[in-house]
Write a structure and sequence with these properties.
With 726 residues, the protein is an alpha+beta fold. α7 runs parallel beside α8 and α10 (553-566) packs parallel to α11 (590-597). The structure holds alpha-D-galactopyranose. Residues 337, 367-368, 377, 412, 479, 481, 527, 529-530, 546, 549 line the site of alpha-D-galactopyranose (GLA).
Length: 726
């Protein structure tokens, strides 16, 4: 049984495949953390409780006679605001009397097999024989009730946590903060924080730094999880590298305002609190109502960052992503955005599709510009009616014409928006998020629709349904190109305006869910000006995500490296684009663009008619090779061999049975007389592997001595080697 309760000592022990998470119910009903790390063989680790005499500035608890105990130094599972713990709170409830003093004490628990969904919010799933769930029932004297939910996965070093707040009183209360989880670590060594920062076209750069005393907050307040910070962070012990050392990953399954906070207190204890960002948040609960937080995926590895990422990738493939799209190979697409931008008509698209079909592609994605009178980005978002001047006969005709070349049709939408110049905005200005009496900020000449409103959500579902049912459309790229400002809703009462951000996200999940229900065979690709909302909740709905608008293969090395810390390759949409690159102006070899794009879900973002004869031949070979070998990347294990910190970068994917591997090396910047041996990882040491030239190597030799990549590679040149075990 992965979850055990020792009733005498009141200790809970949660065992994943390789880790243990232990906490206890202490005197006074305090829920106190004891341990999270490599699996322990015993549960009774009560001696890990912090109990030290302190000065009079540390408050004692009236319900615990032990003078050494203080809520301010205990390792709390769900610390409450205002009752003696001055560190980061996990929960803060404003009661009918208007104060926020909150307490959270144990009142009972239930252990059951499997895992229940979280109403309205995407979450990981498991069958009864794969996981076990503990619900810990806690309460405050005010009548506020808290359920802390822990799910333990038996085959992965992973658990999830979320919380439910219920108003058990007979007056309204307001949830001012309800984190999904809190962990108090006792490691005295001090942690380093690894997180993913960025901006448009520069997403998910890896930063690692020591956690100093005080509070560190990684967050978003933009209404979306965002480009700037990703809802993922890892705590690592100093010295942890790709293959060795402790790494603790936290990934919030949520697409809106989030916060991952860490506090190191005066005693050297580190607290991590993770959940919805409390800034601007307030949720009213009428008597009997419940509030559900999103969940956090907590991954522990004692084999470094590589071990943590591989565990999380496998876990997401098994327990987060839609099975249907893992099993069936996804189409290899040509997207016309960088090929034509807004300058296209049906004949041009058909010409592109003819060429693409001959090269082995499966789908043409018509990206923007096909609706309303949209010939640039100034208008028509919200007016989801096909522009028949450009596309006579509508989508049905286009699908039929490109279908002759074996090409499916995909379409771009930006459903959550209305252009200032649109029929939709003219008819319903109050449908856009705005604050009466204030100017509306504008970005890309568009406003954000208020998805907290049912009428707005219904409009979006109907508008998309009408286009998607007009033709055989097999794929939708769902974009989101600006963030929320002047946050208030025209329909929420004054004491519920703090609910807007979260209601927006709930509205988004429900709209996407309804579209998926109506069109279960349409593959959805997520996008938010590239990877601006790349989070696990989106991935539960969108099996693949446009990783970044930056398609320069050198920039992509950093972006894909950072993305891979948390997310598997089968979610990363990666396209070969033109050179010089449209974002950076950098010239790169065609083969490098192919090698880097083949590290994810491969496609093209250029006009195939502009390819040279040699590039056409290479494209044919690359598309065919990708189709034959994609399982290694999309279902295999990733080993990051050389991070893109210097002048070179290398990685490899290995199938679970270790019978095939795909290795890629990129020389970022050329060097005179370079000597490069790269040791491979993840192979079977006892098997013989053969490369494309027929050269045979023992797995152990490749891992101990490495491949010899010595030779004068120029800037941005690369090589990919496919290995097959005999
Ligand atoms: C955003 C997306 C791009 C493309 C354009 C279309 O920038 O990230 O991939 O779809 O919109 O306007």
């Amino acid at each position: 049984m992965p979850i055990t309760f020792h009733s005498e000592k009141k200790i809970f022990k949660l065992d994943t495949s390789t880790s243990s998470y232990i906490f206890k119910i202490g005197e006074g009903g305090y829920v106190m953390g004891l341990y999270w790390g490599e699996k322990l063989d015993e549960a009774d680790v009560d001696y890990l409780t912090v109990r030290e005499g302190h000065d009079s500035n540390v408050p004692l608890s009236a319900s615990v006679p032990d003078w050494r105990f203080s809520p301010d130094t205990m390792q709390a599972e769900y610390p409450a605001y205002g009752t003696g713990d001055f560190r980061l709170p996990a929960v803060m409830i404003k009661n009918a009397a208007g104060n926020c003093v909150t307490d959270c004490r144990y009142g009972g628990h239930r252990i059951s097999r499997g895992k229940k969904p979280i109403p309205g919010i995407p979450s990981t799933y498991a069958s009864d024989d794969e996981a076990e769930t503990l619900e810990l029932f806690c309460r405050d004297v005010t009548g506020a009730e808290f359920t802390l939910v822990y799910t333990v996965f038996e085959d992965f070093p992973v658990m999830t946590r979320h919380a439910v707040v219920k108003n058990g009183s007979d007056t309204p209360i307001w949830v001012e903060k309800a984190a999904s989880m809190c962990v108090d670590f006792t490691h005295p060594a001090g942690f380093e924080l690894l997180h993913l920062w960025g901006c448009w076209a520069r997403e998910r750069r890896v930063e690692r730094r020591p956690l100093g005393h005080g509070i560190t907050k990684i967050s978003s307040g933009r209404g979306a999880s965002g480009h700037y910070h990703n809802p993922f962070a890892a705590l690592v012990l100093p010295g942890t590298d790709e293959e060795h050392g402790d790494a603790y990953g936290f990934n919030l399954v949520y697409s809106g305002n989030f916060a991952i906070e860490a506090e190191v207190d005066a005693f050297g204890l580190t607290r991590v609190v993770c959940g919805i960002n409390e800034d601007g948040f307030s949720w009213k609960l009428a008597p009997g109502e419940k509030f559900y937080t999103p969940e956090v995926v907590m991954t522990y590895s004692n084999s470094g960052l590589g071990g943590m990422s591989r565990a999380q990738h496998r876990f997401y493939r098994r327990h987060l992503l839609e099975k249907k799209w893992l099993a069936s190979p996804r189409p290899v697409v040509v997207n016309n955005w960088e090929a034509t931008y807004f300058d296209f008509d049906a004949d041009k698209l058909v010409d592109i599709a003819r060429d693409a079909g001959a090269l082995g592609f499966d789908m043409l994605v018509v990206d923007d510009g096909w609706f309303g009178k949209r010939n640039d980005d100034s208008c028509s978002l919200g007016d989801w009616v096909v522009n028949e001047e450009k596309l006579p006969g509508g989508m049905g005709k286009l699908a039929e014409r490109i279908g002759e070349f074996g090409m499916g049709l995909g379409l771009w939408f930006e459903p959550e928006m209305a252009s200032r110049d649109s029929d939709l905005y003219r008819a319903h200005p109050d449908w856009c998020i705005h604050t009466e009496g204030r100017d509306m900020s504008i970005a890309r000449r568009q406003y954000v629709l208020d998805l907290s409103r049912e009428d707005v959500c219904d409009y979006i579902v109907d508008a998309l349904t009408s286009v998607l049912s007009s033709a055989d459309i097999k794929y939708v790229k769902w974009d989101f190109n600006r963030k929320l400002t002047e946050y208030s809703s025209a329909v929420l009462p004054a004491d519920r305006q703090g609910e807007l951000f979260h209601r927006y996200i709930l509205g988004l999940y429900s709209v996407v869910g309804r579209i998926k229900e109506r069109f279960p065979d349409v593959l959805l690709e997520g996008c938010a000006s590239g990877g601006g909302r790349y989070d696990p909740a989106m991935l539960a709905l969108f099996p693949q995500y446009w990783t970044s608008d930056d398609t320069d293969p050198i920039e992509r090395l950093y972006i894909q490296y950072g993305t891979s810390m948390a997310y598997p390759a089968c979610t990363m949409s990666c396209h070969v684009s033109a050179s010089p690159n449209h974002q950076t102006g950098r010239k790169t070899p065609f083969s490098t663009r192919c090698d880097v794009a083949a590290a994810g879900v491969f496609g093209y973002e250029l006009d195939p008619r502009a390819l040279s004869e040699r590039e056409r031949e290479e494209t044919k070979r690359r598309v065919a090779e990708y189709k034959a070998r994609r399982h290694i990347v999309t279902d295999g294990d990733l080993y990051r061999l050389i991070p893109p910190d210097g002048d070179e970068c290398a990685w490899m994917y290995v199938t679970k049975d270790k019978s095939e591997a795909l290795f890629t090396y990129v020389r970022i910047k050329t060097m005179i007389a370079p000597v490069a041996f790269v040791r491979l990882r993840g192979l079977d040491p006892d098997r013989t592997y053969v490369d494309g030239d027929g050269r045979r190597y023992l797995g152990s030799t490749l891992m101990r001595a490495g491949l010899n990549l010595t030779g004068g590679r120029r800037d941005a040149e690369s090589v990919t080697v496919y290995f097959k075990a005999e």
